[in-house]
Amino acid sequence: MGGKAAIKEKVGTGKGRHASSSVPTAARRSAAPGPGRTSPARTVHSPVGREGGKPGAPARVRARPRVARVRLLSPEQRLVAAIRRTYRNAVAYFRETRLEMRKVVWPSRRETMVYTLVVVASTAIVGLVIWVFDIGLSGLLRLIIR
Q1: Distance separating the N- and C-terminal Cα atoms of the chain
Q2: pLDDT of residue 66
Q3: What DSSP string describes 7-29?
Q4: CA distances from 95 to 65, 89, 91 (A)
Q5: Which of 28, 61, 95, 122 sits a CA distance of 20 to 30 A from 37?
Q6: Which among 64, 60, 42, 40 is positioned nearest to 50, based on CA atoms?
Q7: CB under 8 Å to 33, separation ≥6 — which residues?
C-alpha cells in the first residue's frame, strides 16, 4: 500500500478508537453484556473489504498504550519540589482567602450594636436560668441529705 491509503490507515479517520468498525456507535453501546450474556471476545477481523486490505494479510491489532517513564529524583530535587509545592499552595490559599473576603457583606455599625446587645442579653438570661436551677437543686439536696 502506498500513497493516501497508507496514510489513512496509519492515521485513522479521526472518529475515535472505533472508527474502522462496521458496527454503529449506538449498537456497540447497547451490546454491553447483561444478565445471561457473555462479553464479546476480542476478535481480530481481517481488513478485507475495508480500506483496501488484501486477503490473507495479517489483521491490525491495537498498539499498546505508551507508558510514561518515571524519572527518579535525587533527595535535593525532591526537597526543592516540596518547597515549591508548599509555596504554590500557600500563595493559592491566600489568594482564595482574599477573594472570599471580598464577597463578605459586613454589617453596619447599628446592626453590630444590635447583634452585640442580643448576645449580651441572651447570655444574661441563660446565666440567670442556670443560677435559679442551681439554687433550687441545692435546696432540694439539702432537704434530702438532712
Answers
A1: 112
A2: 81
A3: HHHHH--SS-TTTT-SS-HHHHH
A4: 39, 10, 6
A5: 61
A6: 60
A7: 39, 40
* Alpha helices (H) in 12-108, listed in sequence order: 25-30, 75-103
Place of cell 446592626: 111
pLDDT band at 99 (very low <50, low <70, confident <90, very high): very high
Grid cell 440567670 — which residue?
Answer: 128
The pLDDT value recorded for residue 146 is 84
Closest listed residue to residue 22, CA positions, set 1, 40, 4, 48 = 48
Cα distance between residue 133 and residue 139, in whole Å: 10
Q: How far from 125 is each of 72, 99, 101, 137, CA to CA, in Å?
A: 66, 39, 34, 18
Choose among 46, 71, 76, 52: nearest CA to 4: 52
- What pTM was estimated for this model as a whole? 0.35
Average pLDDT over residues 73-94: 94
In the Cβ-directed half-sphere of 46, how many Cα atoms lie within 13 Å? 8
